[in-house]
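Support request from a user on the community tier.

User writes: "When I paste my structure tokens into the form, the page sometimes reloads and wipes my input. The last time it worked, I copied everything first. Here is what I submitted, just in case something in the input itself triggers the reload:"
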């Protein structure tokens, strides 16, 4: 009887313990779910804040301990997309403590790019203003803007030089020429005549629509050409399908077209390898700076391979896309990019540096007027414009208070000390461009300043325009950092020791930030503008730029 009671008692205790264990497991499970949900909410909220009004989250990998890696898709020819990327990067810098950015197209090295010394000048307002104008003119990209404006941000090259130097064929796409050659075989004579008539009338869209209506294969291929986002694997398949179709219908493509397609296939194959090279470099940076958020800027065609490779490397990654990845008909970015690719000034509209300094090349096709001028020199020219405008607005004596600073700027740029005259807050002066072995050139500038429309981000109304994109960027630039860098916690203690604008010593950074020669507080809410002229008389007769 006693044994039975002990047995029942033991059984009761066992059941009680089992219940406790079950309750403990349930509590642990709920706590784990809460932790995951909390982390997920935290990440989701951060991404929403970063992409608000300027971008979107496309994809993310499985959460791991390594990361986060923020991967940005970019289109070099989208001006608005570049500004939107700059805004998202700035928000990440201010809110998440982003310090490291890996850039496609820049060759990997043992030290970051010298972004902080891109524009050399003592006045931070003038320097930031020059960077803003260069971004708007397409002279610099969104990531170059962020790296140059924020001394604590490092931009690293992530490409192999050997892979990057493999180029696609120049001129019209060989794939497009091959499609038209195949069309001559499979489209009726009547429709071919009509097609040629439309082309001669410069009704290109109508002509292509005609071909699409003639054959389903032609429709598929021609529509794919305008696809906004295509992976490298699909681009390779697209060209391979064209070659296969030519063989099926018995079309012998011209040797130059076949060679062009083969060169494109080699380019895409190398581009695929570049994706893995870039991911390996990012993985190395992640190990070098454990726990640091890292951004990665890539062309959209690399996205699929890069995200898979990041996940395979155990890196927690987010794929972000600017709102305007593809430029529309109002975007000047394509024109700017084409000019820049030829070594020209990106913006050559009336009254800009580019109008005068690109013209010689465009008319006669020799080297440009200042064809080998470095980008440092271009930055110096923009800085001179901003520095003079802000000095006038701040009540400095022109040119006495600033002439020593502007006499010999980097890149062979200087000003004529005797050329200055003032018209209200406007200043007219002559700028010199000098290169070794070339004739000294000059250009007259009228520089002025106007009130900036800087608003708090929460007060901005949602309107889709380039101006609104700049409003969002200005708002992000004016937000205080929520995660300032620690004085001793360096991402850059040795790599850029000669760069006066870089460094992790808080005292030194404070000195850098305040090292503005007699900068008046009122200039912080103004932006500079300029017009370029051939002569003093033209500059003098032009209407005032500055507002009171």
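"...and here is what came back when it finally went through:"
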């Amino acid at each position: 009887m006693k044994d039975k009671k002990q047995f029942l008692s033991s059984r009761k205790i066992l059941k009680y313990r089992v219940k406790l264990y079950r309750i403990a497991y349930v509590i642990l499970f709920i706590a784990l779910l809460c932790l995951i949900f909390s982390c997920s909410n935290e990440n989701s909220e951060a991404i929403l804040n970063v992409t608000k009004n300027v971008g979107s989250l496309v994809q993310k990998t499985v959460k791991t301990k390594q990361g986060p890696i923020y991967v940005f898709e970019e289109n070099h020819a989208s001006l608005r997309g570049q500004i939107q990327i700059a805004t998202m990067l700035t928000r990440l810098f201010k809110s998440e403590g982003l310090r490291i950015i890996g850039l496609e197209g820049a060759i990997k090295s043992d030290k970051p790019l010298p972004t902080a010394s891109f524009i050399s000048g003592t006045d931070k307002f003038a320097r930031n203003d020059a960077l803003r104008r260069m971004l708007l003119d397409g002279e610099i990209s969104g990531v170059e803007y962020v790296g140059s404006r924020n001394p604590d941000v490092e931009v690293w090259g992530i490409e192999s030089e050997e892979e990057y130097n493999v180029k696609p064929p120049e001129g019209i796409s060989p794939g497009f020429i091959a499609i038209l050659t195949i069309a001559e075989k499979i489209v009726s004579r009547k429709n071919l005549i009509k097609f040629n008539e439309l082309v001669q009338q410069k009704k290109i869209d109508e002509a292509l629509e005609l071909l699409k209506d003639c054959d389903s294969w032609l429709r598929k291929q021609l529509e794919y050409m305008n696809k906004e986002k295509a992976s490298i694997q699909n681009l390779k398949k697209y060209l391979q399908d064209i070659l296969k179709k030519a063989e099926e219908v018995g079309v012998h493509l011209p040797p130059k077209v076949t060679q062009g397609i083969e060169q494109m296939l080699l380019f895409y194959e190398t581009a695929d390898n570049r994706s893995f090279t870039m991911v390996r470099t990012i993985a190395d940076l992640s190990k070098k700076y454990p726990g640091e958020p890292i951004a990665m800027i890539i062309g959209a065609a690399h996205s699929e391979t890069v995200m898979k490779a990041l996940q395979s490397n155990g890196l927690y990654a987010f794929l972000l896309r600017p709102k305007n990845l593809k430029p529309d008909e109002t975007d000047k970015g394509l024109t700017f990019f084409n000019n820049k690719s030829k070594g020209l000034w990106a913006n050559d509209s009336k009254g800009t540096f580019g109008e005068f300094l690109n013209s010689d090349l465009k008319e006669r096709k020799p080297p440009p007027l200042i064809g080998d001028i470095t980008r440092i020199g271009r930055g110096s020219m923009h800085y001179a414009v901003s520095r003079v405008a802000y000095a006038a607005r701040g009540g400095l004596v022109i040119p006495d208070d600033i002439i020593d600073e502007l006499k010999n700027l980097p890149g062979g740029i200087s000003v004529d000390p005797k050329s200055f005259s003032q018209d209200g807050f406007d200043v007219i002066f002559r700028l010199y461009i000098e290169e070794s072995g070339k004739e000294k050139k000059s250009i007259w500038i009228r520089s002025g300043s106007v009130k900036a429309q800087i608003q708090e981000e929460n007060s901005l109304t949602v309107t889709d325009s380039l101006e609104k994109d700049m409003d969002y960027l200005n708002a992000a630039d004016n937000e205080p950092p929520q995660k300032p860098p620690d004085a001793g916690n360096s991402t850059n203690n040795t790599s850029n020791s000669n760069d006066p604008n870089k460094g992790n010593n808080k005292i030194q950074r404070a000195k850098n930030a305040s090292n503005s020669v007699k900068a008046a507080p009122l200039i912080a809410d103004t932006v500079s503008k300029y017009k370029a002229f051939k002569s003093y008389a033209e500059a003098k007769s032009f209407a005032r730029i500055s507002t009171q």
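Agent notes: The reload is a front-end session timeout and is unrelated to the input. Confidence is low (pLDDT under 50) at residues 35-40, 360-373, 487-521. The first strand starts at residue 55 and ends at 60. Escalated to web team.
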